[in-house]
Write a structure and sequence with these properties.
Distance between the termini: 37 Å
Structural class: alpha+beta
Number of strands: 2
Largest sheet: 2 strands, antiparallel
Oligomer: single chain
Shape: elongated
Amino acid sequence: MSPPLPSVWCRPRTFSRPSSVCADKGIAVVLISHSMPEVLEVADRIQVMRLGTRVATLPSEGTTVEQLVGAMTGALDFSKEELA
């Protein structure tokens, strides 16, 4: 069994700069967070998963915390509105 990977904790203020540098170079950055305002602040595109299945792919611009929570809880269905 592989040894566990070290945890990296960072605030979006410190995270946003490295993520923009990576994005400028065409490198994908995956951010997993429960803080929706912070996700909206640093992300270009947001994938929402519910019970192990992707239920929405939304642009951060124009998306609200309420929409993200609705997708996470199943209260809103974004399957027809998703981006490619």
